[in-house]
Amino acid sequence: MAKIIVVTSGKGGVGKTTSAAAIATGLALRGNKTVVIDFDVGLRNLDLIMGCERRVVYDLVNVIQGEAGLNQALIRDKRVDNLHILPASQTRDKDALNLEGVEKVLDTLSKDFDYILCDSPAGIERGAQLAMYFADEAIVVTNPEVSSVRDSDRILGLLASKTRRAERGEEAIKEHLLVTRYNPARVDSGDMLNLDDIREILAINLIGLIPESEAVLRASNQGVPVTHDADSDAGQAYTDTVARLIGEEVPLRFHLYEKRSLLSRMFGGGRR
Ligand SMILES: Nc1ncnc2c1ncn2[C@@H]1O[C@H](COP(=O)(O)OP(=O)(O)OP(=O)(O)O)[C@@H](O)[C@H]1O
Ligand SMILES: [Mg+2]
Prior knowledge:
Blueprint: E1 3-8, H1 16-29, E2 34-38, H2 46-50, H3 60-64, H4 70-73, E3 75-76, E4 83-86, H5 99-112, E5 115-119, H6 126-133, E6 137-142, H7 146-159, H8 164-167, E7 174-182, H9 184-188, H10 195-202, E8 205-211, H11 214-222, H12 233-245, H13 262-266
Parallel strand pairs: 1-5, 1-6, 2-4, 2-5, 6-7, 7-8
Antiparallel strand pairs: 3-4
Helix pairs in contact: 1-12
The protein binds adenosine-5'-triphosphate and magnesium ion.
Domain AAA: 2-150
GO molecular function, one term: ATP binding
Binding site for ATP: 11-18
């Protein structure tokens, strides 16, 4: 039986797709058979970030509407053996997904995979609710700004009330906080919320902190999830996050602002 994890946020553009791709890659690199599903019907970003956009023939909507089998739509990642992608459709019909169809797809995948990651669309509407409905765990992606934290709080409300586990009165979805685009210098100068404030407001377990990093842009331009960039801060931060997700204890990195001394500024002591 696979563990179903939704990557969700409320606010748009906070790093859900980046995180879903990076975490799925990390889980697969650790030997877990993993599939990552793009629930963002109409936008279809995951295949670009995973670098498989030219190989998309069938998608989640085709499978749900009976136009293709699951095996026809699943794309095998070209870098990591046990990683698969189920792309979203470019149809403009946001109602193309339905609960029964999604349940069937997840049930079938569940038999074959260890982890199913669901990359949610932004917002608190139907698409986001479908992506989270069957989840066992949720990664709530949050940026260090008030609007993002507020929308994450809304998502926590939905996770606790509008999911299968909530409706059946089962054990609650395990919620994890993933803070992304964290810039310690801007936090230090008061432009952004600091980690402690975010944790205090949302009060859920912190699974990782991803720094604001040029490596993410580079990775998405190349269609290679940033986890593969093992020298980069963001790549290392996602690898740490994956380790915590599978139960390891890893100390937090990249959250402190290192004030540079006058000497190091004068002599340019290289900070990446
Ligand atoms: N750690 C980071 N450092 C720098 N840029 C980042 C980081 N994480 C994400 N980004 C950038 O932020 C933008 C949005 O990222 P992404 O598409 O992953 O967000 P999203 O939450 O999936 O968006 P949407 O709500 O539209 O689905 C992208 O340009 C991405 O490259
Ligand atoms: Mg996205």
